[in-house]
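Work Package 4 report. The design task specified in the project plan requires that, given a folded chain encoded as structure tokens, an amino acid be chosen for each position. We show below one input record used in the internal validation round.
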């Protein structure tokens, strides 16, 4: 009943920038947190960045100073601005959100997007 739709992935050269977007839609009471994970071929999915209510952000050490996460609260959309991209940033990037849904008793659930491919060439 809830879906996250991602966009913005693509192929870029090392040193270039890319901006990912993810919008939550469906039966939603509130979007409490949004963030990004990534998974490279043959590796486990790893945390990249997140933003919670109030605007606090967190970043993986590997992307600090290069990536910036932001949110448009009116649109239930999260962005990931990726700068100074490196070949090691190549991965499928997944949007994640903690969402309270209006069930019998409102409860928070975690949802995932379908993933968008980011490829950085050297």
């Amino acid at each position: 009943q809830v879906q996250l739709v991602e966009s913005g992935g693509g192929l870029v050269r090392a040193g270039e920038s890319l901006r990912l977007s993810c919008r939550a839609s469906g039966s939603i009471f509130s979007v409490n947190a949004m963030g990004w994970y990534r998974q490279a071929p043959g590796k486990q999915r790893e945390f990249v960045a997140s933003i919670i209510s109030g605007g606090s952000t967190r970043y993986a050490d590997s992307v600090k100073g290069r990536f910036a996460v932001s949110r448009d609260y009116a649109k239930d959309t999260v962005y990931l601005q990726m700068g100074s991209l490196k070949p090691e940033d190549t991965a499928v990037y997944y949007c994640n959100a903690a969402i309270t849904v209006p069930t019998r008793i409102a409860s928070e659930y975690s949802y995932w997007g379908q993933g968008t491919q980011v490829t950085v060439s050297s």
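The two ends are 40 Å apart (CA to CA). Validation will be extended to a larger panel in the next phase.
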